[in-house]
């Protein structure tokens, strides 16, 4: 592809409502023609459970979640639950007609998967793009995102490493995803409902068999900054992007604050399904 000027945002670790609100605010700015295509790299503080847009609220064990001091938020993208902690989160946001994002979900997933593959390869991890179910074809029988790879999601020796989800609007596309760097992936089972404790333990065991972290795959930890640099380097090399460091615009920041108050920190949205 020819060289294409994008904005890259490194935003400080933030709560779940703000992270989701800023992603949507950037999507709106791009739809208005007020922002360049953007790669946003961020983290979460405190840890937060995120639900897919159509995932039942009944999947959440709110008492356990609160015992751990974790938050919960609902995404505008599909897929199933993720516990965001000890990770690098990426968001790719651009016009729906952009060559990297044009077409349907699977076409754009495939293009972005090539950049994600290169990013993880730069870190020294042998990865592949898993052929599986499309994100919208997955059922809610299993509430945990990282247990089942979707089409073009990134795996290491058959274990899922990057989970992604996408929302497509008439004028814009948002795809965001999670690269777990370290930590115990089974912590998510403490935030979800199960018929009994045996089922919870079995879900945790399955998760360890089917998902992994960068530290587990490499045998050593890497920093958030190292992973972020690999992501930027890979997107530039694979997709012909030239990044310029930027900041959220005044419109994006103000709109994100509105979305936190009216949507992402509001029960009518979080418990909507």
Fold and architecture overview:
The chain has one domain: BirA Bifunctional Protein, domain 2, CATH 3.30.930. Helix content is 34%, strand content 23%. The protein has eight helices and eleven strands. The protein has helices spanning 16-31, 62-67, 105-122, 197-210, 214-218, 224-239, 250-264, 267-270; strands at residues 4-10, 38-42, 48-51, 71-74, 82-84, 87-95, 128-130, 153-156, 159-168, 172-180, 241-245. Strands 7-8-9-10-6-2-1-11 form an eight-stranded mixed sheet, sandwiched between helices. Strand 8 (153-156) and strand 9 (159-168) form a beta hairpin. The longest helix has 18 residues, at 105-122. It is globular and about 55 Å long.
Q: Can you identify the CATH superfamily?
A: Bira Bifunctional Protein, Domain 2
Q: What's the total count of β strands?
A: 11
Distance between the termini: 41 Å
Number of domains: 1
What is the class in the CATH system?
A: Alpha Beta
Q: In percent terms, what proportion of residues is strand?
A: 15-25%
Characterize the main sheet.
8 strands, mixed
Spatial shape = globular
Structure classification? alpha/beta
pLDDT < 50 stretches: 136-140
Count the helices. How many?
8
The radius of gyration over CA amounts to 17 Å
């Amino acid at each position: 592809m020819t060289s294409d000027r994008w904005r890259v945002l490194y935003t400080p670790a933030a709560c779940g409502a703000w992270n989701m609100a800023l992603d949507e605010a950037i999507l709106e700015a791009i739809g208005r023609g007020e922002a360049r295509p953007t790669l946003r790299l961020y983290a979460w503080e405190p840890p937060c459970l995120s639900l897919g847009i159509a995932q039942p609220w009944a999947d959440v064990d709110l008492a356990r979640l609160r015992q751990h001091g974790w938050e919960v938020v609902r995404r505008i993208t599909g897929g199933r639950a993720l516990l965001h902690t000890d990770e690098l989160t990426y968001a790719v946001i651009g016009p729906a007609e952009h060559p990297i994002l044009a077409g349907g979900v699977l076409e754009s997933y495939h293009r972005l998967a090539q950049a994600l593959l290169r990013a993880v390869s730069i870190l020294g991890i042998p990865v592949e793009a898993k052929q599986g179910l499309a994100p919208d074809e997955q059922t809610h029988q299993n509430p945990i995102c990282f247990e089942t790879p979707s089409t073009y999601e990134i795996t290491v020796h058959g274990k899922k490493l990057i989970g992604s989800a996408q929302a497509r609007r008439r004028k814009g596309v948002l795809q965001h995803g999670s690269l777990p760097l370290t930590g115990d992936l089974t912590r998510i089972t403490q935030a979800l409902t199960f018929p009994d404790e045996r089922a919870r333990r079995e879900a945790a065991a399955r998760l360890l068999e089917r998902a992994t972290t960068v530290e587990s795959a490499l045998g050593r930890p890497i920093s958030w900054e190292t992973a972020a640099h690999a992501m930027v380097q890979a997107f530039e090399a694979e997709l012909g992007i030239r990044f310029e460091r930027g900041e959220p615009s005044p419109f994006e920041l103000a709109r994100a604050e509105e979305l936190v108050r009216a949507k992402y920190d509001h029960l009518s949205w979080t418990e909507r399904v």
